[in-house]
Amino acid sequence: MGPRIALVAGEASGDLLASHLIAALTSRQPELRCEGIGGPKMEAVGFDAWWPYDRLAVHGYVDALKRYRELSRMRRALLARLLKDPPDVFIGVDAPDFNLWLEQQLRRRGVHTVHFVSPSIWAWRGGRIKRIRAAIDHMLCLFPFEPAIYEAAGVPATYVGHPLADTFPLVPNKQEARERLHLPHAAPVFALLPGSRESEVANLAPLFIDTAKYLLSRYPDARFLVPLATRETRVIFEQAQYAADARDLPLSLLFGHAVDAMTAADVVLVASGTASLEAALLKRPMVIAYRMGDFQYRMMKRMAYLPWVGLPNILCNEGVVPEMLQDNATPEALGEALARWYDDVDARHALADRFTALHHRLRQDTAQRAADIILPLLGSRHHGSP
């Protein structure tokens, strides 16, 4: 029997990240078998998916509580299968609420455990680091400031860079993207990204539509691009557009194509999250906006450690792009902030320079660097309980 690695990825971003890692690992060790919970991109590079990753997908605290018993049964079934025939290494790809317990159980029984993508302990819930220390042998970090936090707590950690920085071009081609999307070369173009989850789109769609109305009054030839991840989120946005009597807005709804939309845009309005990092890697000026339920917002704000929520600001350690949250996110405020970016060409160029430097820092050939950590663990076992 050749070496085996078990992986668990819990959503589309983890499926993509793990697929690159599996390809890097098997290119250097062709007999390696990879199995566990994953998605179609992992399967495309030879992964044996015992369960599909979308079984793990939860959206917020309420959904997690509703599905707790189902997820707990699935996790225990996976643990029993892994203990019956232990892998050489277990890799939890993000999904910390599911993976950390599993990692701790396996590590106690001698399986090497690696976690790929640090939980945001630097942003909130820092107390989790004690649980992480008990659960994993090595943390693979996507951001350069993270390893020092883990090493101070006695957790081996390595910065491997961010995979998006490897795949995104250093110089995006705006005109080519506009041609793909059949857009005029000279018109003002704004990309509106209200999130990937249904709850996010429901909260932000009316706000983003009213912001587009505000911008259109200022730029009569403006065009608006709205990439949406699923059919469900598209329906939610269309309903909001109908309710706002905005069916005549020069607004194009796209199935996916978020990267094309941001590349083609002059300025981006984006919900906080990975899309804000994508916008930074595409060197686009942006305004970050977010709204959620008042109770959830108060709880998150009380638990937060940093003055920013957006990854571009966190990674630059400075408020380089505006963030407008909750009651501060109004159509007028967002519209004015977006217009300032559009009108100030020098500011846009200066921001692009900052984002280019960030891109270089994050571009580290992530999958190969991660493989460098994982491959030496194959064929060895812990002795006794850590």
TrEMBL record:
Protein name per Swiss-Prot or TrEMBL: Lipid-A-disaccharide synthase
Family, per entry: Belongs to the LpxB family.
Pathway: Bacterial outer membrane biogenesis; LPS lipid A biosynthesis
UniProt keyword list: Glycosyltransferase, Lipid A biosynthesis, Lipid biosynthesis, Lipid metabolism, Transferase
Catalyzed reaction equations: a lipid X + a UDP-2-N,3-O-bis[(3R)-3-hydroxyacyl]-alpha-D-glucosamine = a lipid A disaccharide + UDP + H(+)
InterPro entries attached to this UniProt entry: Glyco_trans_19
GO molecular function: lipid-A-disaccharide synthase activity; phospholipid binding
GO cellular component: membrane
